[in-house]
Design goal:
Helix 1 packs across helix 2, helix 5 packs parallel to helix 8 and helix 28 runs antiparallel to helix 34. This protein is an alpha/beta fold and 926 residues long. Helices cover 50% and strands 14% of the residues. The protein is elongated and about 125 Å long.
Length: 926
């Protein structure tokens, strides 16, 4: 197999043709990246010191010919707006924000028209006529202002184009298409001034009309030679897209009627191993790529001839993490997108925070807690700001919306007399002009840079990210100072998002040694023995149909402008070029057809398999994640000596509460985490009132209403007075429990009304009972009760303790009442006997009630009273007081006597024994 790369072949040809005159040679390549590889290749085939040829990219050559400098898309937008204002009547002028929405697309169309040397007026006239034809049946009297403005826009496009073209040309700046058109106009002068210099165009595929014209002129004048990199298989196959453009040049360029066409290679059909691997998700591809590199390293430590080509450049970071430690050197010939830069994410969050604050209330400057916490917890803020107590206060007090003054007050309360410049920079108002805002952001970035050291690798990387964003901010400052067209924070944010999209963090590396990681376009003219191509899915490779143009598809076809068909052909060439001279090819694709980053398997894979060459060994595998034999293993925690000591501490000091005992029945692991390890859910802001919080508020409100009437028989007037205080007491309890949470609107207002309604309904029930002659005397509210359980089976006496919502004497009988804000049915409080009582979850409410009765029995002053225990459910208020009952049908016993308590105590002892038993592990219940 011939292993000679295209650049090696090109180097030999250049040296053979121009050995003594290399300094007079200008080598033009599709991109700048290949320059260093060509110089290295030339060096291999020279034995003496000489001047190297000038090596340039096609874009740089075109700029040199035209004498016009290319400017970025944002600067073009500002320049176009200046032109637009100069030719548009003042009353018809649009703001920069509105203008930029259509101007970006129009500039792209200008660019295409100029690159393909089309007559602008013809194209625009064509478009205007199409729009007019859409409304051919409208009489002048039937049109609306909107339709008139729309047609007027199409009529004005030629004027926009001419004015913009001339304006840029006079300033010697331009977009790519303008520069191409001007280069064609000046190519004769350039050619005449070349003298002894010769141009060599190498490795090109798709050319626009301007490039074709320039190269053909130079070839006709004997100023240039062209070396193509195409395989005979593709150029001879009329239907293969990989050879679409070069096949056209070979047959249509008159120069090739008398000159030889160079070069057509025969490398693709040579022996190759092609491994097609499908795996779910993009991360799976990164893992497989890392494993492939590890296997290749085991065979050959030299990675110089290995490349990973990313069909989706977002895969760069996962790939870097997946690389094995055996990779000692690598070169990344692509930038890391500015959108994923941590420093950019911080600035983006700051824009969101401050622009939202202004929108909500410019004078109050109201923050939303999530936006504040996102900044306070950001990795470039949290380690250096030192305001963890402020974060905790926001969580604990349910701050949702609060002013900037409130935030600074909280900071000063927690950290009095402590200056914190970083905090002030992040959260002080952005109420100045846009340049002031940008300068503040620049100061924030410099502040973060000071926090980072030059010693740790991770912090050095963070500095690179910060520097990349700092350059973007400086560019924006320059735009704002120069053009003065951005007047609001909203406009600035939109512009920032556009600029950051094209900003990249460049990687440093040695381009000629080690593993190469690159994007698809960077792979042009380069050859590798081992190639790993990722994300070979439709929509990624090829990129699919994207139409961001005012020119319809049919018009593009008619005028010879490129469409998605030509775009797919370009991707086809890039894909197959990677395979030309490779020995081992690994093609990775995502098998998921739905979801983020999903897409069908690329047509290129199917084409490879259908058109399989005789010397190609193709394997197709699907890799799935290794699934465990069990989907989930339940948690088991054996009881160690330390754990048994902790259980004894709970049992003898604090005591088991009825709710903790039922928690064990429900799920022993939940009991273990919450009661033994004391791990509770993290305190978070309750944006909307949770069910348990609402329950607490109702309990507290009832306690506050009834407290003045303890040890007193309730009268109808007492209850009337309570009803009159429902609003104020409930509001007071909301503020105490829900703290700074918003309760005047939204779901929380509904919750407030629900709480009031529940309390009102309960008091109406009480009023009816008093009217009916019930004598009700409150003994205690939220009273803490306890008792000691002693039994020969237990290793030591065990304490049971808990709070009872309400205990009363009603008609000379003791009632133990537990409030429930959820729905409870009366039949769930009945049990036929106590067999297995403490092993069934549905008995949890019965266990709680009997525990309360057992603890209350210790009170000697009430020995002569009968006792009933029950529940009042606020979602089942019609049922009233629902007592515990033992037995079936009419034989149900509601009074809790000594016998019932003794039987229950036996079951309770069995439950406690299971909790304390050293041989019984805590086992999760699913």
């Amino acid at each position: 197999m011939n292993n000679e790369s295209f650049l090696d072949k090109l180097s030999k040809q250049i040296i053979a043709n121009y050995n003594e005159e290399l300094q007079n040679v200008i080598v033009v390549l599709p991109n700048k990246r290949a320059k260093v590889f060509l110089l290295d290749s030339l060096n291999k085939f020279t034995t003496k010191t000489m001047f190297a040829p000038q090596i340039t990219s096609i874009e740089d050559l075109i700029q040199e010919i035209s004498g016009i400098r290319v400017v970025d898309s944002i600067e073009l937008l500002f320049e176009f707006y200046e032109v637009y204002l100069s030719i548009t009547k003042k009353e018809a002028q649009q703001t920069f924000d509105v203008f930029s929405n259509w101007a970006k697309t129009l500039i792209q169309d200008f660019n295409e028209i100029d690159r393909y040397l089309l007559e602008p007026n013809h194209v625009f006239s064509y478009l205007k006529d199409i729009e007019a034809l859409k409304r051919w049946d409208l009489e002048p009297s039937d049109t609306t202002e909107l339709i008139d403005n729309h047609l007027d826009f199409w009529r004005k496009i030629p004027e926009y184009y001419t004015a913009f073209y001339d304006y840029l040309k006079n300033k010697k700046i331009g977009y790519q298409g303008l520069i191409y058109r001007e280069s064609v106009n000046r190519i004769i002068d350039y050619s005449n001034n070349l003298g002894e210099k010769k141009l060599v165009f190498a490795g090109f595929n798709a050319l626009n009309q301007a490039e074709e014209k320039i190269i053909l002129h130079l070839m006709t004048n004997d100023n240039a030679q062209v070396y193509w990199d195409i395989d005979g298989f593709f150029i001879n196959n009329y239907y293969h897209d990989a050879g679409l453009f070069i096949r056209k040049f070979k047959t249509q360029w008159k120069s090739y009627f008398s000159q030889s066409f160079e070069w057509i290679s025969e490398d693709f059909q040579q022996e190759k191993r092609i491994n097609i691997i499908g795996t779910p998700k993009t991360v799976g591809q990164a893992k497989i790529a890392g494993k492939i590199i590890e296997d290749l390293n085991a065979e050959n430590k030299n990675n110089n001839k290995t490349a990973i080509v990313l069909g989706d450049e977002n895969l760069l970071i996962p790939i870097l993490y997946a690389l094995p430690n055996s990779v000692d050197s690598l070169n990344i010939t692509m930038g890391y997108s500015g959108k994923n830069n941590p420093a950019q994410l911080l600035i983006n969050k700051l824009f969101k925070l401050h622009s939202s604050a202004i929108k909500r209330h410019a004078s109050n400057y109201t923050f939303y807690y999530k936006e504040v916490l996102e900044i306070l917890n950001h990795p470039l803020v949290e380690p250096y700001l030192g305001v963890s107590e402020v974060i905790q206060t926001i969580h604990n007090n349910n701050f949702t919306f609060f002013s900037s003054e409130t935030l600074f007050r909280l900071k000063n309360e927690k950290y009095p007399n402590v200056e914190n410049e970083y905090f002030d920079l992040l959260f002080s108002k952005w109420d100045g002009d846009v340049v002031e805002v940008l300068n503040k952001i620049a100061t924030i970035l410099l502040k973060v840079k000071k926090f980072l050291s030059d010693e740790e690798e991770q912090e050095k990387v963070s500095k690179s990210f910060i520097y990349a964003v700092y350059k973007v901010i400086n560019k924006l400052i320059n735009y704002c100072d120069t053009y003065k067209r951005i007047n609001s924070l909203e406009s600035l944010y939109e512009m920032y998002k556009q600029v950051i999209d094209v900003a990249e963090v460049s990687f440093e590396g040695e381009p000629l040694t080690g593993l190469q990681i690159m994007g698809v376009l960077e792979s042009r003219v380069l050859d590798f023995d081992n190639v790993i191509i990722t994300s070979v899915n439709e929509g990624k490779f090829p990129s699919g149909k994207t139409q961001n143009s005012f020119i319809p598809y049919d018009v593009k076809r008619e005028l010879g402008l490129p469409t998605y068909k030509e775009k797919d052909a370009i991707y086809s060439y890039h894909f197959y070029h990677l395979l030309f001279r490779a020995k081992n090819v690994y093609i990775l694709y995502n098998t998921d057809n739905e979801g983020i980053d999903a897409g069908e398997k690329s047509r290129f894979i199917t084409q490879l398999e259908i058109e399989k060459q005789r010397n190609h060994t193709i394997t197709h595998e699907i890799y799935n994640a290794v699934l465990p034999e069990k989907a989930y293993s339940i948690i088991r925690v054996p009881k160690s000596e330390k754990l048994l000591e902790r259980l004894k501490e709970i049992a003898t000091v604090k005591g088991f509460s009825p709710s903790s005992l039922t928690a064990y029945i429900r799920n022993p692991i939940q009991f273990y985490f919450q009661r033994v390890l004391r791990i509770n859910e993290m305190e978070e802001v309750e944006e909307n009132i949770a069910i348990n919080t609402l329950g607490t508020i109702i309990h507290e409100a009832l306690e506050a209403l009834y407290k003045p009437y303890i040890n007193k028989f309730l009268s109808f007037e007492d209850l009337e007075e309570m009803v009159s205080r429902i609003e104020s007491v409930t509001l007071e309890q909301f503020k105490l429990v829900y703290k700074e949470g918003e309760i005047k609107k939204g779901k929380n207002l509904l919750a407030f009304e629900v709480a009031k309604r529940n309390i009102y309904n309960f008091l109406q029930l009480e009023k009816k009972a008093v009217n009916d002659g019930d004598a009700i005397k409150i003994i205690s509210l939220e009273e803490k009760l306890s008792t000691i359980i002693e039994d020969e089976k237990l290793p030591y006496p065990v304490k049971i303790s808990g709070n009872v919502d309400r205990i009363e004497i009603r008609n000379n009988a003791i009632r133990i009442i537990d409030y429930k804000t959820g729905k409870v049915e009366a039949n769930t409080l009945k049990v036929i006997n106590f067999d297995g009582l403490t092993t069934i979850v549905k008995n949890e409410k019965i266990i709680q009630l009997l525990c309360y009765a057992l603890m209350f029995k210790e009170k000697e002053e009430f020995l002569n009273h009968s006792i009933v225990a029950g529940i009042i459910s606020f979602k089942n208020m019609k049922a009233g007081f629902m007592p515990f009952g033992l037995g079936r049908g009419k034989d149900v016993i509601n009074e809790i006597n000594e016998g019932i308590l003794n039987d229950f105590k036996t079951e309770l002892v069995n439950l406690i024994l299971r909790i304390l038993d050293a041989e019984t592990p805590f086992k999760e219940t699913l």
